[in-house]
Amino acid sequence: MQLAVQMLEQARAEIDALNVFPVPDGDTGTNMSLTMGAALREVERKGPDARLEELVTAASQGALMGARGNSGVILSQFMRGFARVLASPRHPGEKGPAMVARALQEAADTAYRAVIKPVEGTMLSVGRAAARSAEKLVHRRPAARIPDVLEAALEGARAALTQTPRQLPVLAQAGVVDAGGRGLVVLLEAAVRAARGEVELEASAAPAGTAPDHGAAPAVEAVPGHGGIAETDVTFRYCTEFLVRGRAIPHQLLLEALQDLGDSLLVVGDADLVKVHVHTNHPGQALEAGLRWGELLAISINNMQEQNRQAARKAASRGAHAPAPPAASARGAGVVRPNRYPHAWAAGARRPWSRRRATRTRPVRRLGPRPRPRPGSSRPGVRPPRSERPASSRW
């Protein structure tokens, strides 16, 4: 888990720059990194002698308590579903790789259930594709090992990440892939490296705004000054988060009390501790709704309109020193073509990978009556020289 936190921190600036949905406030990488950091701290409290069941449960609880933002809360639900399987007894005859595949599927299902209105083209789609790829490998290769299962999940996640602009038009318009999905890919990359025994991370961190090399090229090549976060009006300005601690908290009633206040509503947890996340223009009313069922903890209210302004200024400053390429071209609905040759495009040159079509000249078929043969000539239809043409000749 420490490797996952380190890799997320290295990719934090890159993921932040991809954050255009649901609100372009540029904090997805930060929120996911903080959420994983809270999970790690809870695991470290258990000590080196703790069992696997205790460790995964602690990670799930720590992620819930320290979840930040929409992406952080959804990530905590991925971890909750994953921990639920690993902390429970195995099915009869079930081996480790099959259990990991089942845990990935439960993680994806738990995250989907937590979101009231799931949107495709987000980290939900990437997580589900990872789980399906892992299950397919287990069915196809019963002798597969745990690293093989995680590698299959990683490949499925990478493939799904490249498809997110097709599924979510706002991503195609900005020329980016989903930020939360990219964060999940980084976490799976960390899981694969840990399963292989590669627990140390390179000391060199990637510069801000660039993609660190984790063994795979970015799905869409980032072009400074193009796409990404732009200043916009945020409908529901305040990201409001808090914990409700009580007894027998009715999730459904709390959900109904909050659902008319805004969007991006998440109400997750258990009967005694509930995490609430909502984008609203009335954060006070959201807090009052939570107070009906218990005491409030970890209250956080952020102005996303101001976050959007700061993120847009940061994106503009990163692109100020780079040549501005033309608008990204698309093939099909919402698939952004990587701008591999921005300088050639900006100069109006022909694309380097295109080829001129070879053309063949065909003989022109003469229309109309066939010309008369020249008197005394055995070659009918041959045009005589101009000097030999009579004045009354058809030629």
UniProtKB/TrEMBL annotation:
Residues of the DhaL domain: 1-193
InterPro entries tied to this protein: DegV_domain_contain, DhaL_dom, DhaL_dom_sf, FakA-like_C, FakA-like_M
Compositionally biased region (Basic and acidic residues): 385-395
Pfam families in the record: Dak2, FakA-like_M
Region Disordered: start-end pairs: 308-395
Compositional bias of kind Low complexity: 317-334
Composition bias, Basic residues: 352-373
Protein name according to UniProt: DAK2 domain-containing protein
Organism: Geochorda subterranea
Source lineage: Bacteria, Bacillati, Bacillota, Limnochordia, Limnochordales
